[in-house]
Design brief:
This protein is α+β, with helices and mostly antiparallel strands. It is 24% helix and 38% strand. The chain contains two helices and six strands. The strands form two sheets. Strands 2-3-1-6 form a four-stranded antiparallel sheet, with helices on one face. Strands 4-5 form a two-stranded antiparallel sheet. Strand 4 (66-67) and strand 5 (70-71) form a beta hairpin. 24% of the residues are buried. The model has no long low-confidence stretch (mean pLDDT 96).
Length: 78
């Protein structure tokens, strides 16, 4: 299942997302999206997890969690 994680601080990395989401199950990939022109973070990223049940649990429990000073939003990626 692919999850969208938004409201990230500009210095939040894919490694940070990997560490947080891996406590809920196997993470296949993590990616933070950057602006091609400026090179700055766009404030969101994607986390792909192997098991749908683990991803659903992570989504429910991490919604509104404070990461690096911001409350993140987690939803199913479309």
């Amino acid at each position: 299942m692919n999850l969208r994680v938004s409201n990230l601080m500009s210095h939040t990395t894919a490694a940070v997302l990997q560490k947080i989401f891996s406590t809920y199950g196997r993470v296949i990939s993590c990616k933070v999206i950057f602006n091609n022109v400026t090179g700055h973070s766009c404030g969101y990223g994607f986390v792909e997890m192997l098991q749908e049940a683990e991803a659903s649990r992570a989504m429910q429990e991490l919604e509104g969690m404070n990461i690096n000073g911001r409350y993140i939003a987690v939803s199913v990626a479309r």
